[in-house]
Design goal:
With 266 residues, the chain is mainly alpha-helical. It has helices at 2-41, 45-50, 61-85, 89-94, 105-129, 133-138, 153-173, 178-183, 197-218, 222-227, 232-265. The longest helix has 40 residues, at 2-41.
Length: 266
């Protein structure tokens, strides 16, 4: 029995280093797998550079300190600008973002309730003044609502678009030509630059005024036109109108006198 026990102890002593070696190999494999997963999930070099963790490899090492100082000054300048543009405390208090520093909590609650009530009243007035659904449908803001199935809204919108396009097309076909618009001084001449359009309009007005001035000076007066039987009919009509108005005023005055006399007698 003794030799057998010795052989078993030697075998156990031989198996122990084998288990330890396998455990070490498994631990190394596990560490290697964890390291590979971490390497896969690690951020890229560009991301680390943008987060200011790594320095830009495209910049020479002798220039990296200068670049850091420039970036620092630029960031500080941007921060100073944003701080100078931020609203004041009073503006934030007026916008109900901050509470007034000199107002107690109770007064602030009362003021907030009053402001809420004021906004509620203003909202109710606006809701009361808003247009009705029919007016919004007439303006094309709302669809036909319950009068039309939702599946037909797109079809109705397309039909409205086609009808409007047909109206516009008809109006374009019947619009006056460019020549008549230029003759009416609505469009400028195509040979004139836009920057000279106003000067050309002024010159044309002066030209027309110079053409009309001699004609106005040479036109005959009303007496000459009457002698030439041009204003004769109009003068007679005016005289008859004046005579009729005079008779009417006389009759009105007599009627007022009769009424006044009747009132005095009564």
């Amino acid at each position: 029995r003794t030799p057998h026990v010795l052989r078993g102890g030697a075998a156990g002593a031989t198996a122990a280093p084998t288990l330890v070696a396998r455990q070490v190999v498994l631990q190394q494999q596990l560490s290697r797998d964890q390291l590979e997963r971490q390497l896969v999930r690690r951020p890229s070099q560009e991301r680390l550079t943008s987060a200011n963790i790594l320095k830009d490899v495209r910049v020479a090492p002798s220039m990296q300190s200068t670049q850091e100082r420039l970036k620092f000054y630029r960031t500080r300048g941007q921060l100073d600008y944003h701080i100078s543009q931020r609203p004041s405390v009073n503006a934030l208090v007026d916008a109900n973002i901050l509470r007034a520093p000199n107002v107690s909590g109770r007064l602030a609650a009362i003021a907030a309730e009053v402001e809420f009530q004021r906004k509620s009243d203003a909202l109710e007035r606006k809701i009361g003044q808003r247009p009705s659904a029919d007016e919004l449908r007439d303006k094309g803001v709302l669809t036909s609502g319950g009068q039309l199935a939702p599946s037909l809204h797109n079809t109705a919108r397309e039909l409205h678009f086609l009808r409007t396009a047909a109206k516009v097309r008809t109006g374009v076909q019947h619009r006056p030509p460019a020549a008549s618009l230029r003759a009416a001084h609505i469009l400028s001449q195509p040979s004139v630059a836009p920057s000279l359009h106003d000067a050309v309009v002024v010159l044309e007005r002066h030209k027309v005024a110079e053409t009309l001035q001699p004609r106005v000076e040479r036109r005959p007066d009303s007496a000459e036109l009457s002698q030439r039987n041009i204003l004769k009919g109009k003068i007679k009509e005016r005289q008859q109108l004046l005579h009729t108005n005079s008779i009417r005023r006389t009759l009105d005055a007599a009627l007022l006198e009769q009424r006044a006399a009747a009132a005095a007698a009564a």
